[in-house]
Amino acid sequence: xxxxxxxxxxxxxxxxxxxxxxxxxxxxxxxxxxxxxxxxxxxxxxxxxxxxxxxxxxxxxxxxxxxxxxxxxxxxxxxxxxxxxxxxxxxxxxxxxxxxxxxxxxxxxxxxxxxxxxxxxxxxxxxxxxxxxxxxxxxxxxxxxxxxxxxxxxxxxxxxxxxxxxxxxxxxxxxxxxxxxxxxxxxxxxxxxxxxxxxxxxxxxxxxxxxxxxxxxxxxxxxxxxxxxxxxxxxxxxxxxxxxxxxxxxxxxxxxxxxxxxxxxxxxxxxxxxxxxxxxxxxxxxxxxxxxxxxxxxxxxxxxxxxxxxxxxxxxxxxxxxxxxxxxxxxxx
Length: 333
Prior knowledge:
Layout: H1 2-10, H2 13-44, H3 49-53, H4 60-84, H5 93-96, H6 102-130, H7 133-139, H8 144-163, H9 172-187, H10 196-219, H11 229-245, H12 254-288, H13 303-325
Helix pairs in contact: 4-10, 4-12, 6-9, 6-12, 6-13, 8-9, 10-12, 10-13, 11-12, 12-13
C-alpha cells in the first residue's frame, strides 16, 4: 500500500509539474552561464606571439620603411646643400685635390675607370644570361641548391679578384675582376623580367643617388664618414639575415612583411651609407698609400679592390630601386 501510495504521489499532476518546472530551468541557466563565460574568455584572450607574427600583413611595415627612406633623403639633401655650398668649417677632399700629387690623382682616376668597367661588364653579362635559359634557370632558382651555388659563385669570385696582387696592364688580377663582374651580372639577370623602362628609370635614379652621395663624400671633411664603419657592418648583418629570411617567410605575413621592408628600404639606406664610407676610404687610401710601396714591403695601391667596393654599393642600390619601382615596396596580397 505504501508503495502504491508513493507511486500515486509520483504520478500526481502537482508533483510532475513542479519537477518539470524546477529541473530544466536550473539546467538551462547553468548552460547559458557556461556559454557566456567561454565566449567572454575567447574574446578577452590575447593572441600569442606566433599568431601575431603569422597574421596577415598590413601596410605598417612598408609605411615605416618608406618613412625612413624619406627621412634619409631629406638628410642627404641637407648634407649635399651644406657641404656643397662650403658651409663646413673644415676642408674637404675637393679643396685638398688642388694640392694632390699626380700619382694620387692617377690612383683615383684608375679606380673609377675600373668602377665604370665593372658596371659595363655586369650589364652585358646580365643581358647574355637573360638570353640563356640554362643560366637563367640556375640563377632564378630559389631552392637551397640554387642559393648555395649563387652564394658560392659570388663569394668565390670576389675573394679571388681581391686576393690577387695588383699589377699594371692586363693580367690575372684583371681576368679575375672580369669574371667577378660577369658572375654578378648573371645573378641580376632575372631583373630583366621587369622590363626595359623600369630598369632605365632605376638606372637613372641610381645614377642620381650615387652622384649626390659621391658629391657629399668629396665635399665633406676627409674623415667625416670613416667613423661609420662599425655601425655599417652591424647593419649589413641585419640586412643580410633579413634577406635570407624573406626566402622562407612570405611577405604576406606580418613577420615576413617586416623582414622584407628591412631588406628593401633598410638595405637602400645601408648601402647609401656604405657609398659615403667607401668613397672617403678610397680617397684616404689614395692619399696615404706609399708612392713606392716596394720600399716599405707592402703591396702596391690596388684600384681594382677599391672599385669593387663602390661597385657593390651601387649594384645593391640599383637592385632595390628597380624593386621599388616595380611595385615591390607595396603590400603583398
